[in-house]
Amino acid sequence: MTPRTSRLVTLATAAIVFTAIAAVRPLHAEPPTSPCTLLTPQQIKTALSASPNTPALIGKPGTPSDGTVDCTWPDAKGETRIYLSLKEPGITYNSFRNSMQATGRLVPVSGLAADAFYISSSGNSAALYVLKGKHLLLVTVDGVGFTKAQNEAAERTLATDALPKL
């Protein structure tokens, strides 16, 4: 093989390898750039039982940290009414789930995704965790005057709305 042929073979091989690497998808799932895009203003208003003339709540993306991206929907007074975050479950997911189950605060939710559960807290709040594929979705709702059951129902509705977009 001549030096020129050797260089051409090397360049051709490098081009093929580079093309193959560029075409490979990452092994981990990437969450959407903004969870704010997972829900529409109408879905937010419906979940909060807002009247038709209530101005739309605008989602505010948070600063990504530790592989988590999030969005909040505050009301006119600045109070967060809906919080949504996405992350890869990672190796800590099972230990978190098990520790919450041991406290008795974990309430399983069936029919939503591979794994879903509420973490109850005092008062009218709860947090809905939903595992779908390589995504862990967290939804919390704090509706004005809502009972815990109403907040949980709104969380489930919003999760149902968001899951097809993951």
In short, what is this structure?
This protein has 166 residues and is α+β, with helices and mostly antiparallel strands.
Radius of gyration: 22 Å
Uncertain residue segments:
2-29
What is the name of the CATH architecture? 3-Layer(aba) Sandwich
Protein structure class: alpha+beta
Folded structure, characterized:
The chain is α+β, with helices and mostly antiparallel strands. It has a single domain (29-165), classed as 3-Layer(aba) Sandwich (Protein Transport Mog1p, Chain A), CATH 3.40.1000. The protein contains four helices and seven strands, in the order ααβββαββββα. The protein has helices at residues 3-23, 41-47, 93-103, 148-162, and strands at residues 60-61, 69-74, 80-87, 106-108, 115-120, 126-132, 135-141. A seven-stranded antiparallel β-sheet has the order 1-2-3-7-6-5-4. The protein starts with a helix and ends with a helix.
Topology:
Blueprint: H1 3-23, H2 41-47, E1 60-61, E2 69-74, E3 80-87, H3 93-103, E4 106-108, E5 115-120, E6 126-132, E7 135-141, H4 148-162
Task: Supply database-style keywords.
Protein Transport Mog1p, Chain A; disordered N terminus; alpha+beta; 166 residues; 7-stranded antiparallel beta sheet; globular; 4 helices
